[in-house]
Amino acid sequence: MVACPHNIYIIITCIIAFYKHKFCIRSIYIYIVLKRSNMKEKRIKSLEFILLITAILVIIFFIFRYILFLYIAITIAAIGLFFPQITLHLYKGWDWIGQGIRYCVTHLILFIIFYFILFPISILYKLKNKDPLKLTNKNLFSYYDLRDKNFSDNDFEKMW
Predict the structure, then answer these.
(1) Is residue 77 classed exposed, middle or buried when 0-12, 13-18 and 19+ CB atoms within 10 A define those classes?
(2) pLDDT for residue 108
(3) Is 45 buried (19+), middle (13-18) or exposed (0-12) by CB count in 10 A?
């Protein structure tokens, strides 16, 4: 068999295709492993959620002695153990509600801090100091404020 350029090209193409296929299989394997670990994490989080809801319902049962809470807790625990898809959907719904609450609360807190704390402080400061940035005097060469102070050793001992 004589090696012609056409045969060498086919051999090189087969080698490249083999390595590409090998790398493709490895990347698919890595994807599957990561997907499994992600699914395991979601399953663990959803089971933690079901355990939390069950514990809350059992505590409510012990406080109020109303048997319906115990039945609901047992039902939710059974759903959590035997139906992972329903558990995952319950967890996603709860997470979606939590994200909405988180969005509203953070914006509400920022609104309160800005309009009830920072804004009045700025208004009072502007009423007290007429021109804190010295913007009205256009004849100034520099806005730097010269301070002639003689420093002593005590100034560097306790700076704060």
Answers:
(1) middle
(2) 96
(3) middle
Tell me which residue of 53, 94, 91 sits closest to 74, measured CA to CA: 53
Region at 2 (left for phi over 0; alpha for psi -120 to 50; beta for the rest): beta
Q: Which residues of the chain have pLDDT under 50?
A: 1-3
What distance in Å separates the CA atoms of residue 122 and residue 114, rounded to the nearest whole number? 10
Dihedral of the CA atoms 145, 148, 152, 156 (nearest 10)?
A: 10
Round to whole Å and give the CA distance between 79 and 85.
9
Task: Give the pTM.
Answer: 0.52
- The Cα–Cα gap between 86 and 102 comes to 24
Q: Give 20: exposed, middle or buried? Use CB within 10 Å, 0-12, 13-18, 19+.
A: exposed
